Amino acid sequence: MYVCVCRAVTENEVHDCITAGARSARQVRDATGAGGDCASCVRKICAILKRSEELMPTA
């Protein structure tokens, strides 16, 4: 599913960025371009980031 239509960035690509270490919408944008145009996808990206933080084990 597309998260960012402007840049054709999928949810899987956002998850790949998070796996690679992205922890903010800005870091996802820098890696994929998502959120760099109209920015309507930033809320979706933030929601994905929040869900991934909840799934991360705490040390």
Write a structural description.
There is one protein chain. The protein is mostly helical. Helices cover 53% and strands 8% of the residues. The chain has helices at 11-19, 25-32, 42-55, and strands spanning 2-4, 9-10. Strand 1 and strand 2 form a beta hairpin. Helix 1 crosses helix 2 and helix 1 packs across helix 3. The radius of gyration is 11 Å and the shape is elongated. The protein starts with a strand and ends with a helix.
Name some characteristics of this structure:
two-stranded antiparallel ribbon; 3 helices; about 60 residues; single chain; mainly alpha; about 55% helix
> Helical content, roughly?
40-55%
Counting DSSP E segments of at least 2 residues, the number of strands comes to: 2
Strand order of the largest sheet: 1-2
Shape: elongated
CA radius of gyration is 11 Å
Distance between the termini: 32 Å
* Assembly context of the chains: single chain
Average pLDDT value? 94
Q: Which regions contain 5 or more consecutive residues with pLDDT less than 50?
A: none
Structural class assignment: mainly alpha
Percent of residues in β-strands: 5-15%
The biggest beta sheet reads: 2 strands, antiparallel
H/E topology pattern: EEHHH
Helices, by number, come to 3
